[in-house]
Each structure stands twice: as C-alpha cells, then as structure tokens.
Amino acid sequence: MKTIIFGKRSNLTTSIVKKITNFEIISSNDIDYSKLRSENFSKKNFIFNNFYPAYKLNNLEPKQYDIFLNNSLVDLVKILSCLNPKKINKIIYTSSSSIYGLDEDLKFTELDKYNRKIYAAIKYSAEKIVQNFCQKNNINFYIIRLFNTYGDSKDKFSFIEKLIDVKK
C-alpha cells in the first residue's frame, strides 16, 4: 500500500522513507489541492509531518504568525478537506511532546521566550482536528507525540544537539 507523506524537509521524513518502499513525499509548499481533490486513487496511508519548523520558533515574530498558522494548521485542514475518506487506510499525525504539560503551562502568564506555548497549543489543535476527522469518517489514526531528540545544529529544542554543544 502506498504511503503519502506531507512534509518534505524534515529529519523525520528522511528517516521514515528509509524504512518504507512505496511512498510519495509532498512538500507543504507545493501541494496541488485540485489534484488531491480529483485524484481517484486506491486506499493509501497518510503521514502528516508538516508543521512550522521548531528551530524557527526562537525567532518567531508577530508578522510571521500567518506563515506559522498556515504551515501548522491551515495546510492540514485544506488537505483533509480534499481527501476522500473512503480512500484512506490510516492517518498518522506526527505531533510534539511539547503538548505534555500544556494545561499547566497555560496557567502561568510569564514570558514564553521560545514561543513553545503557541507551538504546543497549535499542535494540540491539529491533533484534535485529525482526531475529529478520523472519528467522523471511521478512519484508523495515530497521533504520535515525538520527543525532539534528533535535529540539526539550528534546532535549539533537540536534546542530542544540546549534548553535542555541551561536549564541544
């Protein structure tokens, strides 16, 4: 069965495609919504690995909120609205461990230096959209909350990168 992966430029997508054989990667920046809507394909698996890059959160400015929101939520909603639920085998949504503790974090009003609360709140909203879509359409789905252990030197949330920096 073919797997469609949304999200081209991530370390996770690179790792996933090393383990599967029948796949297509679609960049969130290059989605042809009319093609998705009209495509008469057989059942497929869908992996949503498209979101605003975590390493950019440290520098997120209010004038970039529209880009952040489009990359994080709007694209997901547009894709789901184009897909024929009868042609979906399962959906996997890659979320973030930043969601853990979100309820507690939102009780405090101190400055969020790295915009993690915004990131976590939008990730949680995306999870709920996927859950709602799948439950309403009787589709198997998995929400995978990943811990950001791997990344690159630009990724200030990466545990591994922090260890590398300390070692250097």
Short descriptors:
5-stranded parallel beta sheet; 17% strand; alpha/beta; 38% helix; 6 helices; 168 residues
Which helices and strands appear, and what pairs or packs with what?
Elements (H helix, E strand, L loop, with lengths): L2 E4 L4 H6 L6 E4 L6 H6 L5 E5 L16 H18 L5 E9 L5 H4 L10 H21 L3 E7 L12 H9 L1
Read across the widest sheet, the strand sequence of neighbours is 2-1-3-4-5
Helix and strand element order: EHEHEHEHHEH
Structural class of the helices, strands and pairings? alpha/beta
Q: Helix coverage percent of residues?
A: 25-40%
Poorly predicted runs are none
What does this structure look like?
The protein has helices at 11-16, 33-38, 65-82, 102-105, 116-136, 159-167, and strands spanning 3-6, 23-26, 44-48, 88-96, 140-146. The longest helix is centred in the last third of the chain and has 21 residues, at 116-136. By secondary structure, the chain is of the alpha/beta class. The chain has a 5-stranded parallel β-sheet, covered by helices on one side. The chain is globular.
